[in-house]
């Protein structure tokens, strides 16, 4: 053990565990000496539940070699362990949870960027005025929602409410991405304050961060559900308006009319050619093939439902395979 050097994932997991949910009685005590005297945290007090958490995260670091441990995973494990209090059951429950949450911890952060982009598109569709205000405040990167989406609002709700929220999200009752509507519900709840008083990114960031542990769960879920149904109806209306199949056009078949056999004198032909007139007495200019009409005003404001927005209507949970995770890990390492 003297030559053993713990990996960065092991060190980070141990450091994170000692900072995770220490206000919960289960994790609060420090009545056990550190089991590894060579650890950089040997002088830090611990307890049996913290050590169980460390062991599970270390096991996951070896189990998922493509991803390993990433900061924030301890926040996802602690509620599962606190409820189960059985390391084997809690570990496999955590593995199942991470199957859908891996995208949040990719090294290149592509999974998080995609969710923030989806929230961007959703707000544009549902509340254009609020979106324009955030755009003026240089806040449409939605970075102030990064932490919320990363660990599913773990630090925004009280402990018991967080457990209830996660159980609601795990049902995939309306959408496997219902957490995006929870984020939208939080924005809509504070819409008036944001539009009236917050005009810069740092103001928006500070305000949203200070919402931690102040958000009521039931009204937020009710608002999120109402927003989902509004979104669903809006998608149906847009699809019906712009993608309704057109009736087939029936064309009448006509016989070609015989042209009159007229003759013109060479002199008349030459004069017509010289003046640029056609033999029939026209000016020789071809009539325009397109009518001179103004573009339809509705065509310039067509609302498009992007593929990312359509995924919000699906209840299917997307799970990444090991090859995808490996590719994103390599991209993040560059």
Automatic annotation (TrEMBL):
- Give the signal sequence positions: none
Q: Name one GO molecular function term.
A: GTPase activator activity
Q: What InterPro entries does the record tag this protein with?
A: Rab-GAP-TBC_dom, Rab-GAP_TBC_sf
- Any one Pfam family here would be RabGAP-TBC
Q: Where is the composition biased (Polar residues)?
A: 292-304
The alphabetical list of record keywords is: GTPase activation
Disordered as annotated region, ranges: 246-307
Q: Which domain of life is it from?
A: Eukaryota
Q: Record's GO cellular component, any one?
A: cytoplasm
Where is each Rab-GAP TBC domain found? 1-173
Query: Which Gene3D superfamilies does UniProt cross-reference here?
Result: putative rabgap domain of human tbc1 domain family member 14 like domains, Ypt/Rab-GAP domain of gyp1p, domain 3
The answer to whether keyword Isomerase applies is no
Q: Where is the composition biased (Low complexity)?
A: 246-278
Name this protein carries in UniProt: GTPase-activating protein GYP7
Source organism = Trichophyton verrucosum (strain HKI 0517)
């Amino acid at each position: 053990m003297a030559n053993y050097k713990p990996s960065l994932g092991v060190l980070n997991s141990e450091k994170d565990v000692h900072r995770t949910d220490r206000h919960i009685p289960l994790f609060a005590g420090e009545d056990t000496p550190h089991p590894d005297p060579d650890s950089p945290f040997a002088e830090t007090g611990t307890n049996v539940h913290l050590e169980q958490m460390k062991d599970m995260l270390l096991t996951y670091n070896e189990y998922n070699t493509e991803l390993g441990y990433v900061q924030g995973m301890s926040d996802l494990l602690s509620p599962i362990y606190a409820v189960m209090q059985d390391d084997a059951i809690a570990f496999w429950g955590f593995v199942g949870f991470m199957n859908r949450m891996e995208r949040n911890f990719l090294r290149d952060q592509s999974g998080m960027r995609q969710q923030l982009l989806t929230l961007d598109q959703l707000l544009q569709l549902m509340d254009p005025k609020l979106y324009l205000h955030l755009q003026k405040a240089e806040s449409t990167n939605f970075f102030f929602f990064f932490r919320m989406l990363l660990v599913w609002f773990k630090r925004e709700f009280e402990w018991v409410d967080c457990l209830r929220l996660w159980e609601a999200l795990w049902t995939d009752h309306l959408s496997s991405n219902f957490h995006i509507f929870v984020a939208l519900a939080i924005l809509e709840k504070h819409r008036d304050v944001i539009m009236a008083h917050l005009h810069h990114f740092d103001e928006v960031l500070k305000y949203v961060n200070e919402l931690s542990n102040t958000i009521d769960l039931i009204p937020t879920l009710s608002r999120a559900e109402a927003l989902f149904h509004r979104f669903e109806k809006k998608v149906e209306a847009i699809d019906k308006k712009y993608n309704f199949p057109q009736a087939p056009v029936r064309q009448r078949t006509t016989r070609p009319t015989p042209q009159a056999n007229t003759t013109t004198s060479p002199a008349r032909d030459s004069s017509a050619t010289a003046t640029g007139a056609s033999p029939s007495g026209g000016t020789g200019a071809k009539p325009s093939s397109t009518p001179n009409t103004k573009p339809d005003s509705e065509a310039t404001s067509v609302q498009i439902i992007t593929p990312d927005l359509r995924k919000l209507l699906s209840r299917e949970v997307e799970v990444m395979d090991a090859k995808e995770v490996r590719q994103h890990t390599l991209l993040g390492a560059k």
